[in-house]
Amino acid sequence: MQKERIILGIDPGTNIMGYGVIHQKGNKMLLVTMGILKLGSYSNHALKLKKIFERTLSLVEQYHPDELAIEAPFYGKNVQSMLKLGRAQGVAMAAGLYKELPIFEYSPKKIKQAITGNGNASKEQVAAMLKTLLQFQEIPDHLDATDGLASAVCHYFQGNSSSEKKSYSSWKSFLNDNPGRLKKE
């Protein structure tokens, strides 16, 4: 059986950074927390990066994760946006590396595929599936929080094979092996 581990997931952003923490116990995952860091009030990009670094460090110090899963920047047409997003991801990774955490990077498509079975799923679909998988009551106002959580859950699915020789490529395969985890309403 897989050892216990805590996974911190981050959805980097220069206006809002989303994060989620899950605790894996054997083949079960439990929600620890999720939230956002609002950065819109800071006009200076360097100050935003400093805040991302500090918040990531504080999350590591508070929850003591074993691993950090982060969403990779997606390729867009706006080079400036890509550069800023890459910097945000870089400082979050640097904070994790500073605390000697292993870093795992996943594309947005890979995360959506792991959570919903559809690499083109909407943020709302990802949030709804996470609500079912982790059995939390309300979807947060900012879906950046569930995007950060999705990075952690994606990593849980990817890393579940290390000692159990069991791999889940999607929520569907997870639910097939864990039918009691799906609440029918």
Please render the helix and strand layout as text:
Blueprint: E1 5-11, E2 16-25, E3 28-38, H1 45-63, E4 67-71, H2 79-98, E5 103-106, H3 108-116, H4 123-134, H5 143-159, H6 161-164, H7 171-177
Parallel strand pairs: 1-4, 4-5
Antiparallel strand pairs: 1-2, 2-3
Helix pairs in contact: 1-2, 3-5, 4-5
Quickly list its features.
single chain; alpha/beta; five-stranded mixed beta sheet; 7 helices
Provide a concise account of the structure shown:
Helix content is 48%, strand content 20%. The chain has 185 residues and is an alpha/beta fold.
Percent range of helical residues: 40-55%
Mean pLDDT: 87
Q: Identify the CATH architecture.
A: 2-Layer Sandwich
Order of helices and strands: EEEHEHEHHHHH
The CATH superfamily is: Ribonuclease H-like superfamily/Ribonuclease H
- Biggest sheet details: 5 strands, mixed
Indicate the low-confidence ranges by residue numbers. 161-169
By CATH, the topology is: Nucleotidyltransferase, domain 5
Q: Whole-number radius of gyration?
A: 16 Å
Spatial order of the strands forming the largest sheet: 3-2-1-4-5
The tally of beta strands, per DSSP, is: 5
Strand residues, percent? 15-25%
Q: Determine the structural class based on helices, strands and strand pairing.
A: alpha/beta
The backbone outline, from C-alpha atoms, is globular
User: What gap, in angstroms, lies between the N and C termini?
Assistant: 31 Å
The total of helices stands at: 7
